Amino acid sequence: MLATAWEFARALAARRICRVVLTRSTDEFLPLRERVARARAWKADLFLSIHADALPDTEMRGLSVFTLSVQASDREAAALAASQNRADLVGGVNLAHQPKDVGNILLDLTRRQTGNLSIAFARDIVDQLGHDVVLLERPQRSADFAVLTAPDIPSALVELGCLSNPAEERLLQQRAYRQKLAHGLVRAVESFFAANRAM
User: Fold this and answer.
1) Contact 185/125 with Cβ under 8 angstroms?
2) Starting at the edge strand that comes first in sequence, how are the strands of the sheet with 63-68 ordered?
3) Burial level of 4, CB count in 10 A (0-12/13-18/19+)?
4) How far apart are CA 18 and CA 123, in angstroms?
5) For strand 63-68 and strand 155-162, is the pairing parallel, antiparallel, or unpaired?
6) Which of these, 98, 100, 84, lies nearest to 36 by C-alpha position?
7) How far is it, in rounded angstroms, from Cα 103 to Cα 97?
8) Cα separation of 25 and 84, whole Å?
9) What is the tens place of the pLDDT at every residue in 115-132?
10) What is the C-alpha to C-alpha distance for residues 40 and 32, in angstroms, rounded to an integer?
11) The whole model's pTM is what?
């Protein structure tokens, strides 16, 4: 997935519509809270977590996109979030300078707006890649992923395919296929920013 992330970063940077920053440039584990903290430190306008899935049913294949929700959209989404969240804890937002009630209201409003923008971004990803690659049944899903918890940054987690499916695993290893995925993600980012110019 790191090779796909590099392809995506290069292609997006070439469009010059935004500054592109990867949370890491080598194949190393980065704690989930550190990924969120880095995005917030860089004052990110958008956060995309790129993954490949592994499912118990090796026949299942296809891309899917997740946004944050305390209530998972389905059992598979809940299981995937639980397995990834075990890796770390979540970072938060500092509202220490606000009265508690005001801080809670501001945080709630921010989370709602961020949630709506995250869903729109996920929809853009599905729309842009749905013409080029296989989508998992019900490709737009939600779960309680720790990496998606920045309350002020629209965020999505994309599962580019299923490594548990032999055919899709082979595809994900091909540079041409990774480029197709990367260019679809670039189109999704462009679509998102075009629709949300005020950000």
Assistant:
1) yes
2) 47-53, 155-162, 63-68, 135-143
3) buried
4) 20
5) antiparallel
6) 84
7) 8
8) 20
9) 899 999 999 999 999 999
10) 13
11) 0.82
